[in-house]
Amino acid sequence: MKKALIAFAIASTLSTSAFAADTYTIDARHTFPSFEVSHLGFSIQRGRFNKTSGTIMLDTAAKSGSIDISIDATSLDTGLAELEKHMQGEEFFDTAKYPAITFKSKSLKFDGDKLAGADGDFTLLGVTKPVHLTIDHFKCAPHPMNKKAMCGANATTVIKRSEFGMTKYVPAVGDEVKIAIQVEAFRD
Q1: C-alpha–C-alpha distance, residues 144 and 131, integer Å
Q2: Cα-flanking dihedrals φ and ψ of residue 184, to 5°?
Q3: What residues pair up with 186 in beta bridges, in sequence order?
Q4: Is residue 6, in this structure, part of any structural domain at all?
Q5: With helix as H, strand as E and coil as C, how does the chain read?
Q6: pLDDT score, position 157
């Protein structure tokens, strides 16, 4: 009997820790990855993507979790249809061949209970490279209107587009691209 109680206690502890991580689904209505790139040295041009999906798992007690984000590259929005068509072509995003841009975390970094960074694999044009996301403005709380548990954050990184095979007009159009992802996600 004593062995059975010990086994039950151990099993209960293991099952509790196995379910300690919360899963959040990206709210596509409030998640819009964007980019900034130098245009001929005159200005910083910006664009964003209007369709994003994915999940985030967080276990703040264990300081662990995962991020899996997929950006629909065909949802590119620059405010100018002609430019969007050009950028979706083979010279830039080649969305006919590579319709998705992804980030999959390998590890999360915490500052206390707050998510502060994520290291993972970023895939663009079928090329995968490691990147570090710096995360700021992280907050988890009940949504003020629908009362569902929600987390939100802002994540940024800088990549060299040439490392992913996007070399058209480098260096006139900048090689360094700043990426920002404001994300909101509801707990499942």
Answers
A1: 33
A2: -130, 140
A3: 25, 150
A4: no
A5: CHHHHHHHHHHHHHHHHHCCCEEEEECHHHCCCEEEEEECCCEEEEEEECCEEEEEEEECCCCEEEEEEEEEHHHEECCCHHHHHHHCCCCCCCCCCCCEEEEEEEEEEEECCEEEEEEEEEEECCEEEEEEEEEEEEEEEECCCCCCEEEEEEEEEEEEHHHHCCCCCCCCEEEEEEEEEEEEEEEC
A6: 98
What is this structure's pTM?
Answer: 0.86
Cβ neighbours of residue 172 closer than 8 Å, sequence gap 6 or more: 40, 41
Residues of the chain where predicted confidence (pLDDT) is lower than 50? 1-18
The domain tally of the chain equals 1
Q: Is residue 5 part of a domain?
A: no
Rounded-to-integer distance, Cα 54 and Cα 154, Å: 15
Using the structure block, give the residue that is written with the tokens 């300690």.
Answer: 20
Q: Which residue has the tokens 């290291």?
A: 119
Is residue 3 in some structural domain? no
Domain boundaries, position 144: 21-187
Look up the CATH number of the domain holding residue 35.
2.40.128.110
Cross-strand pairs, 59: 64
The answer to the question of residue 57 being in a domain is yes
